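> call design_seq(struct)
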């Protein structure tokens, strides 16, 4: 469906020169050190109709209440992120809307760490690229992301941005986790990001995993209102 994050792998447009003393000797010969592997993804933002207010765990970003959001059309509000890995990159770096930003914050570091942990072997026979699972710990990434709407202006760019970052890094590193797991990682970037991994109407449960309740295109607004009231009833029955 059009609401889900999209991805593609593409060849690099230009190759940076290899470093003189690559620390990745075990992994790459001089010829191999020329390569850049990239993946691109796009994720929509989401707006809460029942909001998430407050955290019971600040580091893991676990909320004090359930929330429900509607996923917006990615043509109107989305983040598009390209991630690239190369033995030529000496450190992880990121550019947001064309301007370099620091990746040193705990939220970015959590997402990078959790995705790297789950990385798997990647092989591109045609280009002679072979990355072993354990190589991903040493291999650095460059990330470039653009939002097609104002950043940090109350429209949940962090939701689209972290969902897109986690999803796209996962594609690059051949991560084979389900959406629930990716959502839990995106949540550590920004709480509301866990809902942007899905499409349609999404309920983020207080627990660790959020999940898709129902896809928007299957509903009309009248039915949606009915659906919300049923959801709330159902939850309060569960709470009792
Ligand atoms: N495309 C992106 N990729 C990665 N991170 C992003 C992206 N866009 C925004 N961010 C991160 O989210 C931060 C902005 O989040 P912030 O919560 O301040 O604003 P918002 O999410 O746009 O608005 P609000 O939370 O009020 O709805 C940025 O400083 C950056 O760290
Ligand atoms: C108020 C909200 O609209 C957004 C605030 O959540 P964020 O996800 O931006 O906050 P952090 O988890 O601290 O990154 C509530 C919602 O449910 O979207």
């Amino acid at each position: 469906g059009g609401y889900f994050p999209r991805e593609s792998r593409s060849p690099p447009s230009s190759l940076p020169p290899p470093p003189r003393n690559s620390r990745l000797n075990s992994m790459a010969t001089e010829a191999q050190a020329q390569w850049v592997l990239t993946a691109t993804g796009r994720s929509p933002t989401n707006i809460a109709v029942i909001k998430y207010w407050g955290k019971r765990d600040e580091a893991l970003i676990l909320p004090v209440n359930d929330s429900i959001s509607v996923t917006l059309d990615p043509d109107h509000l989305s983040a598009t992120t390209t991630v690239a890995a190369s033995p030529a990159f000496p450190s992880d770096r990121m550019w947001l809307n064309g301007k370099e930003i620091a990746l040193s914050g705990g939220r970015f570091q959590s997402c990078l760490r959790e995705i790297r942990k789950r990385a798997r072997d990647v092989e591109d026979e045609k280009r002679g690229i072979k990355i072993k699972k354990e190589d991903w710990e040493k291999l650095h990434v460059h990330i470039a992301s653009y939002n097609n709407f104002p950043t940090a202006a109350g429209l949940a760019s962090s939701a689209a941005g972290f969902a897109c970052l986690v999803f796209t890094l996962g594609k690059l590193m051949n991560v084979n986790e389900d959406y629930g797991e990716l959502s839990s990682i995106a949540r550590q970037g920004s709480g509301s990001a866990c809902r942007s991994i899905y499409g349609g109407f999404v309920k983020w449960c207080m627990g660790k995993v959020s999940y898709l309740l129902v896809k928007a295109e299957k509903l009309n607004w009248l039915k949606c209102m009915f659906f919300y009231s049923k959801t709330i009833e159902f939850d309060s029955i569960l709470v009792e």
